[in-house]
Amino acid sequence: MVFYFKARPEAGDYTIFMGLDKYENEELIKYGFPEDIWFHVDKMSSAHVYVRMHKGQTIDDMNESLLEDCAQLVKANSIQGNKVNNIDVVYTPWSNLKKSASMDVGQVGFHNPKMVNVFTIGSFAYSFCFFSFWSFALFFHSGWVDASASLFKVSISGFHAFKVRTVRVEKRINEIVNRLNKTKVERKPDLKAEREAVNAAERAERKQILREKVKTP
């Protein structure tokens, strides 16, 4: 079972979704799209929340309204995180999620664990402090993180090189959570078939481009 939500209209036409449990999370990890952005409450157990960006968009194209919707939803779906204020939410492109054979069901790490603290939801005061991890072991199903970090400052231009970002959520905003829940739809999608259909369409598009190039004198 996968739950689908609609972001606020002013954020754009975006779908937010999450799995029912760790088994659905496993499928979402396996059959994700390049446009998917993954969210999780940092250092706590929580749902795995995704937003599917438009084709060609990246994590850098997320506006604050969309980011706030995703952060509030993942906070609301964390047993511990929903009860406390000032929690951090981590988010990263689906392509940065790392899955190995030794990991348990629903467990995930990062290919590139470099992290940046972005800003506090509801504030435009950006903090460009970055963390470079030389060791990284991440178990989101239990909320345990073991990492050693060195703190250093970089220019704003270096911001986009960091794949893992965090945003501070000061408190739960019921208005946002309730609005999202009103759009909630439950589905049992064939995630593998959806992914294969997209792959087939992309292959056909590439073949068509090649044929047109061959025809061009």
Entry keywords:
217 residues; alpha+beta; two-stranded antiparallel ribbon; 26% helix
Assembly of the depicted chains:
single chain
Overall pLDDT level: 82
User: Ends: how far apart?
Assistant: 52 Å
So how many helices?
4
- Low-confidence segments, given as residue ranges, are 123-159
Cα shape? globular
Could you tell me the radius of gyration in angstroms?
18 Å
Q: Largest sheet at a glance?
A: 10 strands, mixed
How is the largest sheet built, in terms of strand order?
A: 10-9-8-11-5-3-4-2-1-12
The tally of strands reads 12
Q: Secondary-structure element order, as H and E?
A: EEHEEHEEEEEEEHEH
Q: Which class of secondary structure composition applies to the elements? A: alpha+beta
Q: Work out the strand percent.
A: 25-35%
Question: In which range does the helix fraction lie?
Answer: 25-40%
Characterise this structure:
With 217 residues, the chain is α+β, with helices and mostly antiparallel strands. 26% of the residues lie in helices and 31% in strands. It has 4 helices and 12 strands. It has a 10-stranded mixed β-sheet. A two-stranded antiparallel sheet has the order 6-7. The longest helix is centred in the C-terminal third of the chain and has 25 residues. The chain is globular. The N and C termini lie far apart (52 Å). Keywords: Membrane, Transmembrane, Transmembrane helix. Pfam families: NFACT-R_1 (PF05670). InterPro entries: Jlp2/Ccd25, NFACT_RNA-bd.
